[in-house]
Amino acid sequence: MEIEALRQINDLRDRWGRKMNVRHVLEAAPALVVTFALSIMAVFAAPLPARADAPKPITLVAFGDSLTAGYGLKASESFPAQLQMALQAKGYKVMIVNAGVSGDTTADGLRRFDWAMQPKPDGVILELGANDALRGIDPKEPSANLDKMLSALKSKGIDVLLTGMKAPNNWGEDYAKAFDAIYTDLAAKYGVTLYPFFLDGVALDPAFSQPDGLHPTASGIAEVVKRITPDVEALIQRISQRKTAAN
Question: Under a CB-based contact definition with an 8 Å cutoff, are residues 163 and 153 in contact?
């Protein structure tokens, strides 16, 4: 707009010469005033640039299988999406990345782990193991895979919320005992917070389950989010404290 106003002034000078009489100025004034006013309005209407010192949102990666990915659900109904909305409603500046892949075992997760952590997040919600348990894989294998992931996260200084899983009863009591212990043992080893059972209050409840009886409905995920949110808030607070101490 400023450029247009100057162009019109220069055009007037070219047409009438530098000795513009009063009548010419008065005739041109309304158009120039409007143009100048619009230019001023444009300046004030333009969005202000983001403050350089404005805090960036905390980034969490939800790394898991179909329970994280949102199998059978809309993207907006997935665990990461619903959790982000719940946290933002509480005033947290947070972005949660959905790094869930349906069907993944802990071995599958380990293979894609390094690139899934790029760029480096502030924190990770680690949810894996359900498919290992469903397939009856020796608990030593998911334990070793999760151990490697937690070790890598610790070395990178990334805060973690580990979510546990429980083995189905069909593999027997000994298997269930060994499998369930994976999460408590690893949480103690690495000093991370453990949310004992990701599907707490939802598993095997027809009101919260899809027809396959395994995957939560949107309302089931909402229940998961409601129950796990306090632990995620604690994770965010730890991250914020670490960032403050580093500055």
Answer: no
> What is this structure's pTM?
0.79
Same domain membership, residue 180 and residue 67: yes
Are 153 and 64 part of one and the same domain? yes
Beta carbons of 228 and 87 less than 8 angstroms apart: no
Confirm whether 52 is domain-assigned: no
Look up 53 and say whether it is catalytic. Answer: no
CATH number of the domain bearing residue 176: 3.40.50.1110
What's the maximum distance between 2 C-alpha atoms anywhere in the chain? 103
Catalytic annotation present for 24: no
Q: Give the model confidence (pLDDT) of 224-243 as tens digits.
A: 999 999 999 999 999 999 98
215 is catalytic: yes
Catalytic residue among 65, 66, 132, 159: 66
| 53 inside domain | no
Phi, psi angle pair for 216, to nearest 5°: -70, 150
| 28 and 66 part of one domain | no
- Catalytic choice (14, 53, 174, 212): 212
Identified catalytic residue from 78, 143, 180, 215: 215
pLDDT at 38: 39
- Joined together, the tokens standing for residue 58 give 């905390």
